[in-house]
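Fold this complex.
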Amino acid sequence: MQRTDTFVRRLVALTGGLAACAAFTMTAPAPAGAQQKPVKIAVIVPLSGPWARQGTLVKFGAETAVAEINETGGIKALGGAKLELIAIDAGDTAEKAKNAAQRLVAQEPDVVGGMGAWLSTFTLAATEVTERAEVPWLTLSYSDQITARGFKYVFQSSPTAGTQSTQAVPTLIELGKSATGKAPQSAGIIGDNTASPVSFLKPMREGGLEKLGMKVVMDETYTPPLSDATPLIQKVRSSRPEFLLFISSTISDLKLGLEKMNEFRLGKGAIPVVGNGAHMGAPEVVKNVSPDLLEGLMFIVANWQLKGQDRIAERYVKQTGEPWITQDGLAGYGHTWILKEALEKAGVADKVKVAAEIRKLDLKSGPAADAFPGGVKFEANGRRAGAPLVIVQWQNGRPVSVYPTDRAFAKAIWPKR
Amino acid sequence: MRTDTRRQYLAIAIFAVAYLCIGLLVQNSYYQLMMTLVLIWAVMGLSWNMLSGYSGMISFGHAAFFGLGGYTMTIAFVNFGITPWIGIPLGVVVGVIAGVVIGIPTFRLRGHYFALSMLAYPLAMLYVFEWLGYQEVSLPMKREAPALYAQFSDQRAYMILALALAVLCMVVSLHVERSRFGRSLLAIKQNEPAASAAGINALRWKMLAMMLSAAMAAAAGGLYAVILLVVTPPTMFGVLASAQALIVTLFGGVGVFWGPVIGAAVLVPLAETLHAELGHIVPGIQGVVYGMAIIVIILLAPEGIYWRVRDRLAARRPAAPLPAAIPAADVAPLATDLRPQIGRPLLRLEGVSRAFGGLRAVDEVSLTVHDGQIHGIIGPNGAGKTTLFNVINGFLPADAGRMSFDGTELAGLKPHRVCALGVGRTFQVVRAFPRMTVLQNVVVGAFVGAGNDADAERLAAEAVARVGLSPAEANAVASGLTTRQLRLMELARALAPRPRILLLDETLAGLGHDELEDVLRIVRQVNREGVTIVIIEHTMHAMVKLADHFSVLDHGRLIASGPPAEVVKNPTVIEAYLGKKWMDRAQDTVA
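Structure:
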């Protein structure tokens, strides 16, 4: 039936000429369910190169949210318009990330908002483009610079690197106190000399720890990759800090350190080890490091699965086949929902209006607020107000949240002295 | 040559205008960005070509200059509020200084060692900049007077800037290619010892090339940072930046300024398109396709697209009539057949020694070469004859002894300085510049005796005529010559700057009988025109006919010296080197 229809239409078009054709197609009935043009949102993350895995997890999160939103009636304020996710590869260099953003704004002028580009450097480069194009942009990247440039269209959902490094130790002290009843008095530091560990540790090394009444009993910097952790761990053994900040940008260095600690009988939480970054809780970590070694290892992240996110996690796991949701997946999911909420309020698929609505958001409940502990409300500079740190600990082969204590899934394992 | 240069200028102008027109017409900001990046990487390629393409000193570390240019501009902007309009030239200055600082120690190395140590510089800088705390620096957005800080909302402004820089670098490259500078580099690339012996100050030209190259890379880096707006050590100093410069040049064509431009124009959009179209479908496939494309092109056109296309076009076109390279009227009539008077001592060696470890290759040799003489140096293989030449012309420093040429002390002088004094030399194994024509080979030799490039061409044409090479031979490419032609070409190259003494190392080796007579005649002729000759030779027969004076070396020692007739009768010499049979024959000839 439909086939004949097309054939007849073509015949008419051929005989009736171009004008007739145009008129005919214009009057032809639109297929059901497409009354509204889909609303385009973008995700620019590394889908190739060394960060492809993390980028893919963000994309998974966004896809989960888009599927959920479209199943439950799309954007109601826009007559049930569906969301369409445009995924663009940010590649492995800042140049490619910038190119990706430029391609987005050049070729998808009706995009109403987006998220990315995972690595701070990429985000800095990509947002130079999106800002000028006035596309509201959500990011989980940590760098303080992202929201220190006076940009109006960039929204940072994670606590910034600066916040994380000033908040990390007070948070750990609180966690130690709640677990053991006594605040820890001494700490040790091991960090590699790459960008993120150096800036993370900077305020602590410059008197931040002393100010909190902590004694720094050891402080070591190494150049990755680590070939032998013995000298580092020997210092840990001789100084015996109450907890050890082991800030490494690669899992392999951390693994060497943990193995050596185990050998020296300092492992499995005998001295709590605290790392930084969501990569320490990625599902593939267990493939490289035995769960035995990981037991008790803590790490600081911007977001992890907390109470209230069960529904999100369940859906994500079902849709993607991943064993659990990480910070990356949560961010992709939450950012999509933030754009959805702003679209509902704006009532029009317009990027500038959507940005204005994001600035006004104050969500305490709903999927977007569930995804981000502390709710969704942005400060004037684009940072999420009151975004707390989350501390995760490997317990029984799984990374589980142990802080903030009110929403955490488990209690921290912290040895009493 | 002049008209060709004018044609190249026209080609650059057409390229610039066409690129500008397309760039201004393109509305899509993404394509505008692509067009800008093509030019940036073309400039990086031109920079790499300036050093590595022309001189053959392969650099894996051009990111050092790229990064310094970018970071200088960024730090000046972020920390001191200096606009990139000043910051980029400042970066160029820093880049040039870095070029000198890097060049001084690194030019001591050759081949792979040079390439590898160049690789180390940007990697070291990467860590230094991380350590300094410049992990991620973003250029502040200037909302007021953005143009004052090189910030434009219209991407095409960047494209115009990049085009201006690219055209400037192309014109500079063209100038270098067509001048003494470029030809000296080319000579160094093809045979550095031969170039030095022909009077080229290799270190000076290489250093100049390094400085120019560093300036271009630093300018590219500065502009790149202005466009990217974020600098990080891996972006600016990473291996990728060095590799990109190298790849676009190898792909497009090495040693010609069109090469990097063609390479960048093909590869940059190709890589980006593959990334955009395939990257999200099969992650990483773009790298595989890109790599394959490069492999295929390198296999089909090993020297780059430019040369391949040029060779194709040249093959299709009917052979062009050979340009009349030699202005015949300029050649001075050959001097009389009279031998010059044997005059005062010209080259004097006193107790000259040179050892390689325990082997005394030249052992306290004292000899005097008189003005106008043909002085033969004979001896068995390994006697130290060539080593003696190498010591005289400065390839090897003498361990002991004194050497003077017309009263000037030679010890410690570099080959090009010795050459400039009027000491020319040829080599046992001909050291030609294989990709140049005979005339171009000779021009390289003439630079040392010429004030300007036109003079050098005139001297070269004269020398080619003096050795009796035809105009057709003069325009042939050196790699296709016969032994005789090569020997004559080398002789012409040594003669071009009008030396006073020629050191000929086995010039007669490998020649047939008729050819030998031909070359002998020419050597005699050259001598008659007043050039003193020192010749190493194995062909005794010829040698006895040619030389006025024999010096015999064995195990590095001078064991006999005197007129040939006397020397060949010297029983020690006969017994030790020439053998009994030779004596009978020699007596027939000499007597």
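The first strand of chain B starts at residue 137 and ends at 138.
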